[in-house]
Amino acid sequence: MNDWCQRLLAWYQTARREMPWRGHPDAYAVWVSEIMLQQTQVNTVRPYFERFLATFPDIPTLAAATDDALLKAWEGLGYYTRVRNLRKAAQQLVAEADAQLPRTAAALKQLPGIGAYTAAAIASICFGEAEPVVDGNVARVFARRNRLTEDFSKEPNRRKLADWLRPFIQAVDSPGDFNQAMMELGALICTPRNPTCDACPLRQECQAAETQTQSNYPVIPAKKALPERTREVCLLKNADGALLLARHEGERLLDGFWELPARDALPFQLHKAKLCHTHRQTFTHFRQILRVYTAPLPIDLPKLPANFCWSLAPETLPLTTATRQILTSH
Q1: CA–CA distance, 31 with 40 (Å, rounded to integer)
Q2: Spatial separation of the C-alpha atoms in residues 37 and 322, rounded to whole Å
Q3: Average pLDDT over residues 238-256
Q4: Separation in Å, CA 223 to CA 22, 228, 251
Q5: Which regions of 248-323 does DSSP assign to beta strands (E)?
Q6: In what order do the strands lie in the sheet with 243-247?
């Protein structure tokens, strides 16, 4: 085994954080954690992971989940396509594989929502396959160690780094520990800002540390300005105190969640509407501005369309993050 690999694994044994999915005996739990950890920090994921497994303890239960139960369990975690693909993959496994996860990265990548990184993580951690992971943490560690100038947001460059790492992971006894050690090093030591290089087990090989150019790696391409979308929504309650909600439809990002209804989608006219709040939220590809209006309700309310409801307990429904935040502030 290469000397730096030995040092990395030795560091991991003493420095690794305790996590509810680390060392978990069920590959399903590791799969859920890896999906949750995509573009989401560990501390954010912890409580969601425990609640999700309590609600959906196995693949068949997840496969049978209703939309409302599924979205409620993921509510606030964001990137909701993840959980829809998680259920879709569970349904595929129930139908085709006796509800068992495949044991290789190649087979795992055939499931909805599982890419190269997630497949390598599950296959190595759960089944001992020597397939290296390349996430943002790993890319940062080795971009600095080797002074790599590639843009690791691009898949070909991640594959190139994985190919470079493959002989090293094939030489260790525990591929799962090796992958987790690389990710943990990026999360705890080789951080985006102010890395603690003196504590790094790879310090003696690190070319960026040697030249004091850590902040130059990895190379981050300039971000484009995000477009803005403005909508007018309504905060309306009836005489019983029930809140009017509409189910989001037509846009995959939030499809199936309940939210404050758009003013131009109401099945009745509002008069004397007043702007009471402006809510701003940033998504991956755009910024959303919600202008929130209140108004007295018409005396004769029509029957609501199927995608509207009056709710006395909106907190029991899967709500968009913006709706939850607006209700909390009012």
Answers
A1: 15
A2: 22
A3: 87
A4: 34, 15, 24
A5: 258-259, 274-282, 287-294, 308-311
A6: 258-259, 243-247, 308-311
129, 51 Cβ separation under 8 angstroms: no
Superfamily of domain 3-216: Hypothetical protein; domain 2 (1.10.340.30)
Arch. (CATH architecture) of 228-329 = Alpha-Beta Complex (3.90)
Rounded Cα distance between 75 and 63, Å, is 18
Q: Which two tokens stand for residue 119?
A: 């497949």
d(CA 175, CA 32): 20
Residues marked as catalytic: 34
pTM (2 d.p.):
0.87
At residue 249, the pLDDT reads 78
Which residues are within 8 A (CB) of 96 and not within 5 positions of it... i.e. 6 or more apart?
A: none
Total residue length of the chain: 330
Q: What is the pLDDT of residue 106?
A: 97
Q: In what order do the strands lie in the sheet with 287-294?
A: 228-234, 287-294, 274-282
pLDDT tens track for 60-69:
999 999 999 9
Residue owning tokens 């599924």: 70
Q: Are 49 and 21 in contact (CB under 8 A)?
A: yes
DSSP string, 178-228: HHHHHHHHHHHTS-SSS--GGG-TTGGG-HHHHHT-GGG-S--PPPPPPPE
What is the arithmetic mean of pLDDT over 177-186? 97
Domain boundaries, the chain: 3-216, 228-329
